[in-house]
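note to self: dont lose this again. the chain is below, predicted strucutre after it. 326 aa total, dont forget to put it in the shared folder this time
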Amino acid sequence: MAEKPSQPQRLLPWYAEIREEDTPLPEKTISVSKKTHRLVMQENIAGYLFMLPFLLFFVGFVVYPMFMCVYTSFFDATMNREDIFIGFQNYVDLFNDPVFWKALTNTLIIVVVSVPVTCAFSLWIATLISKMPVAATSAFRCIFYLPVVTGSVAVTMVWKWMFNNYYGILNYLGKGVGLLDKNVNWLGDPKYALGCIILILLTTSVGQPIVLYVSALDNVDKSLVEAAHVDGATETQAFWKIKWPQMMPTTLYILVITTINSFQCFALIQLLTSGGPKNSTMTIMYYIYYNAFKQYRYGYGNAMGVILAIIIAILSAVQFRMGKEK
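---
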């Protein structure tokens, strides 16, 4: 009698096969796992304890003042009396204030001029420096970074002496070479005052971007540049096609930081012009200071601070978005 054909064996997928290594772990291994978990928890707790002083400082001196700034902007807050809740009246007065719009215009002019000029000039200088010997590169790094580590007050006072309309070196040289017929009141004339502020801001802002760009150029993959040159690419083509894309993170950081610093221009205005002449150098930061600490209109000044923070946040978000797309 013929045997019945055997049923074909059902093949299981590889992950369904029972293997010896898939057997449950012994209790001893499980207990070791619990000990490991406990050690990890202890390390996490220790890390948070080390972070606690900084977190307390951050909450007390950053988060809490930010919250109070927004909160107080809805009050008529001043000295020697209780704060009066007025809702959005500070913001209404703000947008009807011609000095605020003048300050905003001046601030935007400073940002629009200083940010691209700072980035372009820093990139150009960094490109030249990176081609020099190591000793020369280090020397020029120190020279361009010196205004950054020098106190802003000291640098500003030097420029104030140079722009002096009686004995300043600019007037002396201008008349000596025949460019000027008489002394120019650089900081007292509305035609020149804002331009002088932008010039000083540029000289104090290029140090850090130059150092960052030099480091970024040193980190560019040299093999890709050499391969491009072998294929016949010019120096300009190699820069824009190979070096520039690899420097985009550095460029994005420089753009954001320079934009924020330009919006927060205060020390130059305070020491040189105090917003004058005729509000030609008035910026939002100085107008906040003027209202809050000279007019004692804390709520009004905080409302301007909120508007300034919103503007900076929007511009930073746009810059980050453009950087990601590129």
